[in-house]
Amino acid sequence: MTPREKVGQLNQRMYGWDAYRRTPDGRFELTDALRAETDRFAGLGALYGLQRADAWSGVDHGSGPGAEDAAALADLVQRHVVESSRLGIPALFVEEVPHGLMALDGTVLPVNLAVGATWDPALYERAAAHAAAELRARGGHVALVSALDIARDPRWGRTEESFGEDPYLAARLTEALVHGMQGAGERFAPDKAPVVLKHFAGQGATVGGRNSAESELGLRELHDIHLPAARAGIRAGAAAVMAAYNEVDGMPCSGNRALLTELLRGEWGFDGLVVADGLAVDRLARITGDTVSAGALALNSGVDLSLWDEGFTHLEEAVERGLVEEATLDAAVARVLRLKFRLGLFDQQQTTPPAPTGGKDLSVALARAAVTLLRNDGTLPVGSHVSRIAVLGPQSATTAHQLGDYTAPQHSGTGSSVLDALRRLAPPGVDIRHARGCALTGDDLSGIPEAVAAAAASDLAVLVLGGSSARTPDTDFAANGAALKAVSEMTCGEGVDLAGLRLGSAQYTLLDAVVATGTPTAVVLIQGRPHVVPDTAGALLTAWYPGPWGGEAIAEVLLGLAEPGGRLPVSVPRSAAQLPVYYNHKDTEYGGYVDADAEPRYSFGHGLSYTSFAYGVPSVYGRTVSLDVTNTGERYGRSVVQVFLRRLIAATWPRTLELCAFEGVGLEAGERRTVTLTLDGELTGLVEVRVAESARAALTAVPVRVDLRS
After folding, report:
1. Which of 557, 635, 87 is nearest to 364 (CA)?
2. Would the pTM of this model clear 0.85, i.e. be above it?
């Protein structure tokens, strides 16, 4: 290969939606921009977002590829790329798959924070397999999936993309993601897709919860909290990782050789692809002085494939100037080509798998499993005496705010709001009335009297509050797609960080007014981060962003047709002034605050049931923990058995608690089952094992002392 051809394989500079246009008669044709790009590099290494559709790309149902023609568009582009390459090298088509394929007609799943709330890796593995099959059926190859960010500060707008605050929970779900999407074996099956795990590393702990800010992490904190998910994903066979925007120890991740080469490739033996985040390579010019040396720094640090930047376009010059060894360039090219061979892109006969079915069912199953009951005084489930239900609040009758960030436009009528689902699922004769009350943001209170009247005339008020990550055409975007400022009702998502954790002011006024009627009230939160909500209503649930059919899952739980099986993947603070409130802090004897409670309102792992469970005394044999779990209530329920450890003797100062195993178990009324869990094989030291239903409960659970030093 010539230097020009090699450099071309390492570039992913073009926005995929600029590669095509739809003609007046509905066909797709290639653009001069694509031809110029392939001419420049005698081919193309990778193309990002050929199927992406959203407010940033400007692609919608009128201009972009849907399920019926996406594969044909991909084939059209690929044939041009191969014909432009002297050696006939195809391109990688890289797509966003953060919670389902981000494409027109793609199945939208609940966001990762909701996945974390399921505590169900097996269910998530099936959903990930479906997303991979959908990607491949449409001609895509590589899936970009957020999995590595640990949510240590809920003010961060991308909290919704994380699995939660705990490294072990994130590691288990990351393993499930890789197994589901990639399958097993060196070659990818036609319905499997290589995963790019993002973001590596520490992006969930940026200062002040501000997107892309610095992460003030010591090496132990980095290894204890922010690297286990990446380690688990790589052990599971992840094909690629994406370097994060933030810095670690003063060096941005894309230019951090200690992180990308010495640790990732050296200590961990990773032989896959390292991808830079959007425009991250060019940011390194603040260190090196120019884009040529910025590209050289990234390549020398361990980055193989760029994204939208100019730095990697000058790698030929960097070699000529002695900034990069040709062997380093060749090694990166070899890794890109190997991934293409693993995908079978060089095969003469390639198989496009059929589109998978069952996407809606998987989305609803995840949403249902994520609904978490935080408080309940007996208001739920809806009793037989209830004949009139007032469905209120800014989230009650819309699906737009259930979807989360990184979501393609939906066809009108797709999904189900809470109001729609309650009207469909409520028993015959139950009168469902509705009033919005207020908007998500702002202080307009004019709709509250109507909502209060509806509540006062009902036997139950269901008040649906929360936030939104919905991007709209009037959003002002940065060059990497992050929102520059919140517009409309957008209160979460990439670039939408908060200084506080309160909902829009009118939502609190609405809550107070509805509760003041004396009508039993159940509050449902649809949100991308934990918000501060007082315990004034009889029942409180969180569904996170449950996806387009989330209203159906929520209604099933409200009506008692389904169990609230979710458990918190993050701790819920009483105020932003408390932060941080994650459960696994260092085990120091510091006191609380003199002006407020230092404990979170709800701790990691918390979640109530419509039934009750009894735990037997745990038995520990080596690294195996066994105990009996009994459903002592009158209906089916799912308990999540959580095993925490407290280190008694450790080489460094220990944490208060650490999750080290968990298992969900569904039991009929009166049923007893023995649950056996295995502790992580890397755990060492003299420890106390505590089995409970949440981190807070574990603090008072009877400990079992175990010596793991031998």
Report:
1. 557
2. yes
Supply the DSSP string of 286-311, one letter for each residue.
HHHSSHHHHHHHHHHHT--B--S-SG
Q: What is the 3-state secondary structure (H, E, C) of 384-418?
A: CCCCEEEEECCCCCCCHHHCCCCCCCCCCCCCCCH
Q: Whose structure tokens read 């009994």?
A: 630
Q: Both 80 and 125 in a single domain?
A: no
Q: What is the mean pLDDT of residues 240-255?
A: 96
Task: Give yes or no for a cis peptide into 199 (omega within 30° of 0).
Answer: yes
Same domain (yes/no): 704, 556: no
424 and 565 in a single domain? The answer is yes
Question: What residues have CB less than 8 Å from 112, skipping those under 6 apart?
Answer: 98, 99, 146, 147, 160, 161, 162, 163, 173
Q: Give the pLDDT confidence of 144-159 residue by residue, as tens digits.
A: 999 999 999 999 999 9
3-state secondary structure of 170: helix
Beta-bridge partner residues of 526: 466
The answer to whether residues 334 and 393 belong to one domain is no
Same domain, 21 and 44: yes
**What residues make up the domain containing 40?**
1-93
Question: Is residue 352 included in any domain, yes or no?
Answer: no
In this prediction, residues 301-330 reach a mean pLDDT of: 98
522 assigned to some structural domain: yes
Structure tokens at 217: 């992490």
> Could you tell me which residues come within 8 angstroms of residue 236 by beta carbon, excluding any fewer than 6 positions away?
174, 175, 178, 179, 182
Contact residues for 508 (Cβ-Cβ < 8 A; gap 6+): 502
Q: Fill in the amino acid letter for 245.
A: Y
Contact by Cβ (8 Å): 13, 291:
no
- What length is written for the chain? 710
Reference 63, options 51, 48, 75; nearest CA is 51
Q: Are residues 205 and 256 in the same domain?
A: no
Give 370's contacts (C-beta < 8 A, 6+ positions apart).
Answer: 110, 114, 115, 117, 118, 543, 544, 546, 553, 566
Report how far Cα 587 is from the mean position of its chain's Cα atoms: 29
* Tokens at 351, concatenated: 């198989």
d(CA 84, CA 287): 36
Question: Looking at this protein, which amino acid is placed at residue 26?
Answer: G
Grouping H, G, I as helix, E, B as strand and the rest as coil, residue 435 is: strand
Report CA Rg, the chain.
26
Query: Distance between CA 524 and CA 88 in Å, rounded?
Result: 55
Q: How far apart are CA 163 and CA 111, in angstroms?
A: 9
- Amino acid 417: pLDDT: 98
Contact 394, 439 (CB under 8 A): yes
Strand partners, 613: 631
